[in-house]
Amino acid sequence: MAFNQSNQTQKLEEDTALMIPLSPASQTFSSPIISFNTFCVVELETLLDEFETTEIIRNLFLPLNARFSSIIHFNEKGVPCWKKVDVRVEDHIIVPTFPKGLSTIEYYNECLQEYLAKIAAEPLSSNRPLWEVHVVKYPTLYGKGSVVFKFSHALGDGYSMVSVLFTVFKRADDPSRPLTLPDMSLSPYGGKKSLWTYVSKCINTISDIASSALKGSILEDSKSAIRSGKLGVEFEPIAISSINISMDRVKQVKLKLGGTINDVITGVIYYTIHLYMVKKGDISAEKSMNLVMAFNTRMLQGYKSIEEMLRANVWGNHVALLLVPIPCISGEQKVDPLYFVTKAKEIMDKKKNSMFTYLSDSMNKLLRATKGIKGVTEFLYANLRNSSTTVTSLIGPKEKMALAGHPVGSINFFMSGVPQSLVLSAMSLTGQLRLTATVEKNFIDSKVFNSCMKEAFENIFDAACGAGTTS
Q1: What pLDDT band is residue 217 in, cutting at 50, 70 and 90?
Q2: Distance, CA of 375 to CA of 387 (rounded, Å)
Q3: CATH 3.30.559.10 domain extents, the chain
Q4: d(CA 202, CA 122)
Q5: What is the DSSP secondary structure assignment for residue 60, as one 8-state letter?
Q6: Three-class SS of residue 283?
Q7: Per-residue model confidence (pLDDT) at position 7
Q8: SS3 of 212, please?
Q9: What is the CB-side half-sphere exposure of residue 329 using CA atoms within 13 A?
Q10: Which segments constitute the O-acyltransferase WSD1 C-terminal domain (predicted)?
Q11: Which residues, including other chains, have CB under 8 Å from residue 188's CB and lie 6 or more apart?
């Protein structure tokens, strides 16, 4: 009897040691109210099969973090914890079969987009660690095959996922050399310091806090051609499309107009929304429209290298949601495409001259202390549902990457489960910018919106650098 009791005590101690409480952010992203999944789509120049993928996952992926080998389990006190389990890698790898058709690259590319939309609607199993890998053995516009990583946002944010790429992927030209990052630092608002600088910073900070508080409670954007305002929109079918833009061309626009690359990208998004609304006969003037910019607060630390970033605590969710107004103009008015970039610069300069992002963690802690995890989750959900769109971005390495010797042709990412009709993501990698739009399928015309993204950048580029200019 004593022997059995000793064994039970030892087993309880072992189980306890294997369970780590979820962070407040992970609890938020694994709740009945919010359940986001992040998808990273890697298109490879040579075909990777499921057997190679299994070895990569087992030997390189799983050892990176205990969360990849854990499920969410509630302990005896009802606290959600990461509980270590045995992982059968084969259960997490899916190899789809596409319908037979014309067997063209364009056909398979469309099949991939439809498949991504399908798996985005499927919840991850709570009985297994919260990730999947889909091995697509069909050619696309950017590769001979694709590997799709699907992660629960509870595991970590996009920055955490990028750290996986930096660790598992190697340089294509020389695997022994490290991948390097573009400049990721973000300095506080510069310029000449004066009394007005500090006064305006205080005004902007108070304005940003007030806007966030109102958007997370009672203030709702107008319904429009990009916002249905439907309850439960996050459960509606989605469509996914993307475009590739040369970063050299983006930099040419930046040099002509000043500002930052982010200003140019935001200007392209503004103009895309304007073009789409005009084509749909929706006049945006007098409407209230805002985008939520998901800003990673780790950027405030300004890592100089991948090694420095990986040595830091990159896992978790460290994101501030910055509310940014969308310019609303009459569809009948002829607008200079460059207006949207200059307007983006004006708005983003104002946002930089604010302490909102620096205070976001403290504000979340205060909200959690007063309203609990459920209150924080409801506030985040309302901020997103009451806004028109969300924009997220990731910065990839400067060098061409390879996965187990298979060169990477392109990478894009997107999120599912966001309570909005339109979500945009931008990924820069080896001189290319991939802009991806995830839309409510039965409300937004994905093909028209995609053509608007292309038209928006081309019009901005021609207006800034002259029609017919090449990179």
Answers
A1: confident
A2: 18
A3: 19-171, 195-393+420-465
A4: 44
A5: I
A6: coil
A7: 47
A8: helix
A9: 18
A10: 315-460
A11: 352
Q: What's the CATH code, domain 19-171? A: 3.30.559.10
Q: Please state, in angstroms and as integers, the Cα–Cα distance from residue 278 to each residue in 84, 337, 452, following that order.
A: 52, 14, 10
pLDDT tens column, 14-26: 444 457 888 777 8
Contact 34, 24 (CB under 8 A): no
| Segment 95-121 mean pLDDT | 90
Encode burial over 174-204: b for 16+ CB neighbours within 10 A, e otherwise: eeeeebebeebebeebeeeeeeeeeeebeeb
Could you give the strand order of the β-sheet that contains 131-136, starting from the edge strand earlier in sequence?
Answer: 93-94, 131-136, 145-152, 37-44, 406-416, 401-403, 170-171
Cα(77)–Cα(1) distance, integer angstroms: 27
Please state whether 400 falls in left (phi above 0), alpha (psi between -120 and 50) or beta.
beta
**Residue 226 phi, psi (nearest 5):** -115, 5
User: Do the beta carbons of residue 140 and residue 105 sit within 8 Å?
Assistant: yes
Residue among 273, 264, 245, 327 at smallest CA distance from 464: 264
d(CA 215, CA 361): 18
CA distances 41 to 146, 232, 373, 409, Å, are: 7, 26, 31, 11
For the chain, helix, strand, coil in percent to 5 are 45, 20, 35
Indicate the DSSP class of residue 65: -
Confidence tier at 426 by pLDDT (50, 70, 90) = very high
Q: Does domain 195-393+420-465 have CATH number 3.30.559.10?
A: yes
* Residue-level length of the chain: 471
Determine the Cα–Cα distance for residues 142 and 279; give it in Å rounded to an integer: 29
Angle ∠(453,415,278) on CA atoms, nearest 5: 30
- pLDDT tens digits, one per residue of 117-169: 999 999 999 899 999 999 999 999 899 999 999 999 888 776 677 777 777 88
Whose tokens are 């990698």? That residue is 429
* Residue type at position 447: K
Residues facing residue 71 across a β-bridge: 83
d(CA 370, CA 363) in angstroms, rounded, equals 11
